[in-house]
Design a protein that fits this description.
This protein is mainly α and 366 residues long. Helices cover 67% and strands 1% of the residues. The protein contains 15 helices and 2 strands. The chain has a two-stranded antiparallel sheet with strand order 1-2. The longest helix has 35 residues, at 2-36.
C-alpha cells in the first residue's frame, strides 16, 4: 500500500511539474512570438483588416481566428467591456504589448482576446502533442520528457514570422493527428472543418486521415474513398463561399514566390546553406528506418512533402511557419530516429508502417 501511495505521489508530482513547465514555456514562447514575429505589421494582413474583412487575399479568407475574436468581443457585456478597455488603456505594460502586437488602440479589447487565443493555442498544442506521443509509443519517463523538451525548443525558430492564425493552426493540426491516432472520426471531421476555416492548407490532413477509414484486417478502398469525399466536400463547402465573398479584395488567392527563393540563395548564401543543411538533416532523420515507424508519422510526412512543394511555390524564403500542420509528427519522427540511433528501444503502440504496407497488399476494392 505504501509503495502504491509513493508511486501515486510521484505521478502527481511529475504531472504537476510538467504542467508548470508547459505553462511557463508557453508564456515565454508567446512573448517571443509577439516580440519577434512582426505579427499584424504586414499591410496585407493588419489586425484591423483581418477583423473587418478588408485584408488582402488569401489572408482575409482565413477567418476562424478573426471571427472567434469578434464573436467573443460581442458576447462580453458592455460594462465588462468598458472596464477591460479602461484597464488596458491605463496599463502602460498592457498597452505596450498590444502596440507590439500591431493592434490599434481602439481595438485593445479585441487584441487582448486574440492574444489569449494565441496562448491557449500553444497550451492546446503541447497538451495534444503529448497525448499523441503517448498514443503511438510506450515510453519511459525519461523518454517522455525528452519528446516534450525537443518540441518546446524546436518551436522557437518558427516564432520569428507569423500571422494571427498560425498558432491556432498548429493546435488544430496536432489535435487532428491525435484524433486520427485515436480513431475518433466524428470529432476529427469537426476539427478538420475548423482547421479548413482557419487555413486552406489544412487539406493536407486528408492524407494521414486515411487511417480513420482503414481496417487493417479487412481493408476496403470504398471506405477510404468515402472518407476522402466527405472531407473534400467539407473543404469545398467552407472555402468556396469564402473565395467568392472576398473575391473583390486586393491580392491573389495564391502568390508565387519561387523566384524569391532563388534570390534569397544568392543574396543570403550562408543563411541559405545553414537552412538547407538543417532541412537535409531533418529529412534524413525522418526517413531513417521509416518502415519501423508508426504509419501515422509517415503519412504525416507525405503531407509534409506536399507542404514543401507549396513552400517553394507560394511561401517566402526561410518561412518555417508553412509547416505548422505537420510540426508535431515531424518532431516525433526525428526524435524516434535520434533515440534509435543512440540504441534506445522505443516500443510502438500504434499501427506500424510495415503492417500498413502488408495490409495494402490484401486491399479489397469491392
Amino acid at each position: 500500500m505504501e509503495k502504491q501511495n509513493k508511486e501515486k505521489r510521484e505521478i502527481f508530482y511529475d504531472r504537476f511539474a510538467l504542467f508548470v513547465i508547459l505553462i511557463l514555456f508557453s508564456f515565454a514562447e508567446l512573448a517571443a512570438f509577439i516580440r519577434f514575429s512582426k505579427i499584424n505589421l504586414y499591410y496585407t494582413a493588419t489586425f484591423e483588416g483581418m477583423l473587418n474583412g478588408s485584408a488582402y487575399r488569401p489572408f482575409v479568407t482565413r477567418v476562424l481566428t478573426p471571427w472567434m475574436t469578434v464573436g467573443v468581443r460581442e458576447l462580453i457585456p458592455d460594462q465588462i467591456n468598458e472596464n477591460l478597455s479602461r484597464w488596458i488603456a491605463e496599463s502602460p505594460f498592457i498597452t505596450s504589448i498590444i502596440q507590439t502586437y500591431g493592434a490599434p488602440a481602439n481595438l485593445g479589447v479585441e487584441a487582448f482576446i486574440n492574444i489569449v487565443f494565441q496562448y491557449l493555442s500553444l497550451l492546446g498544442f503541447f497538451y495534444f502533442y503529448i497525448k499523441l506521443v503517448q498514443n503511438i509509443f510506450i515510453l519511459t519517463k525519461r523518454s517522455s520528457f525528452f519528446f516534450i523538451f525537443v518540441s518546446l525548443i524546436g518551436l522557437i525558430p518558427f516564432l520569428f514570422f507569423g500571422y494571427i492564425y498560425d498558432l491556432p493552426q498548429l493546435f488544430l493540426s496536432t489535435l487532428a493527428f491525435y484524433l486520427i491516432a485515436s480513431n475518433k472520426k466524428i470529432l476529427y471531421f469537426f476539427v478538420f472543418a475548423l482547421a479548413v476555416l482557419n487555413k486552406e492548407t489544412s487539406i493536407v490532413l486528408i492524407i494521414p486521415s486515411l487511417l480513420l477509414f482503414w481496417n487493417q484486417k479487412n481493408p476496403k478502398a470504398i471506405n477510404v474513398v468515402l472518407g476522402y469525399v466527405i472531407q473534400l466536400t467539407i473543404f469545398l463547402l467552407i472555402r468556396m463561399p469564402l473565395y467568392i465573398y472576398y473575391k473583390n479584395n486586393p491580392g491573389v488567392n495564391l502568390d508565387f514566390h519561387f523566384v524569391d527563393h532563388l534570390r534569397a540563395f544568392v543574396g543570403y548564401p550562408i543563411t541559405s546553406i545553414i537552412f538547407w543543411l538543417i532541412a537535409i538533416l531533418t529529412v534524413s532523420l525522418v526517413l531513417y528506418k521509416w518502415k519501423k515507424k508508426p504509419a501515422i508519422l509517415n503519412l504525416g510526412l507525405c503531407s509534409g512533402f506536399v507542404l514543401l512543394v507549396l513552400f517553394f511555390i507560394g511561401g517566402f524564403p526561410f518561412e518555417l511557419r508553412v509547416f505548422y500542420e505537420v510540426y508535431g509528427v515531424i518532431v516525433i519522427s526525428v526524435i524516434w530516429s535520434f533515440l534509435t540511433l543512440r540504441g534506445e528501444l522505443i516500443k510502438i503502440a500504434a499501427l506500424g508502417t510495415d503492417e500498413f504496407i502488408d495490409s495494402l497488399k490484401s486491399l479489397k476494392t469491392n
